[in-house]
Amino acid sequence: MHEMSIALAVIGQVEEAAERAGDVTAVRSVRLQVGELAGVVPDALSFCFELACAGTLLEGAELVTDEVPGRARCQPCANEWAVGMPPLLSCPRCDGAAIDLLSGRELQIVSVHWEDARTHAPTRETVPEER
What we know:
Elements: H1 2-21, E1 24-35, H2 42-53, E2 62-68, E3 71-74, E4 80-82, E5 99-103, E6 107-116, E7 121-125
Parallel strand pairs: 1-2
Antiparallel strand pairs: 1-6, 3-4, 3-5, 6-7
Helix pairs in contact: 1-2
Binding site for Ni(2+): 2
Keywords: Metal-binding, Nickel, Zinc
Binding site for Zn(2+): 74, 77, 91, 94
């Protein structure tokens, strides 16, 4: 189950960002963009995230996933369409196979909400994308 390795990577990135920020007492939520074509099962990822957070700064944190639909554009005719599942990877207008995937492969942290010991209030941080 690769969702566990993804959950561990997300936790590691959030912990690094919290360490750089200093005085973070708890992480309350993590928001991820998950592309339809990323090969990630959001429910499995949430389950793994909850397990992997135990005993860390993220224990009890909510994982919020925003699904990004797959979209493609045909190079020859410039038609754009929703790729869907299973993915339609040839142009529905001209049947061309020279396409560009515009979206749907995302797997990135969008934001993190944590509590800061200095202000005792929730803080929203954006964690830079690391692939």
